[in-house]
């Protein structure tokens, strides 16, 4: 397909692009079947090139969510530091935080049965479990169970019909979890004795 410039900018050159129509075959048929019309400058001469273009587009949503966590959750646009090097160091730190939120969100859906101790320190999961359930855990719960409990600190309702928690409730909850874990390590309930 060739796109011509608007009349007001008639001196601009025309641009030739490829159009891809991707339709979900044998989908659920409930109105949620996927049908994408993609415009791309990538070559699509072979089936492999076509698949690559579709894979790139499918990855865009994850990238958009990552930047939302970085901008809204970490509030990187509000950072006011005096030098570029300070800002770069701060941004690198926040990128790790945003990655952790995205990673936990993804892993709790892809590997729900692994123990939460694979992704959280004992102070993190034990303090959150104690606060959200009122019970002291003797062994780490599954990642899905823990993520659901953790997300309640960020506004997730954890009802049976709800889907798994998303990044927003998790980034809010992880902020609170860090405070609880610090208190857990500082006051260490296992070492306290009655006098």
Question: What's the N-to-C terminus distance?
Answer: 81 Å
Average pLDDT number: 90
| Share of helix, binned | 40-55%
**Structural class estimated from helices and strands:** mainly alpha
Low-confidence stretches: none
Can you put this structure into words, describing what you see?
The strands form two sheets. The protein has a two-stranded antiparallel ribbon with strand order 1-2. Strands 3-4 form a two-stranded antiparallel sheet. The N and C termini lie far apart (81 Å). The chain has five helices and four strands, in the order E-E-E-E-H-H-H-H-H. The mean pLDDT is 90. Among the domains are: 13-23 and 32-62, no CATH class; 107-188, no CATH class. Helix 4 (143-152) crosses helix 5. The chain is extended and about 75 Å long. The protein is mainly alpha-helical and 195 residues long.
Summarize the structure.
This protein is mainly α.
Write the layout of secondary structure elements.
Elements: E1 2-3, E2 15-16, E3 18-23, E4 35-40, H1 47-73, H2 84-110, H3 122-133, H4 143-152, H5 167-187
Antiparallel strand pairs: 1-2, 3-4
Helix pairs in contact: 1-2, 2-5, 3-4, 3-5, 4-5
List keywords for this structure.
195 residues, 4 strands, extended, two-stranded antiparallel sheet
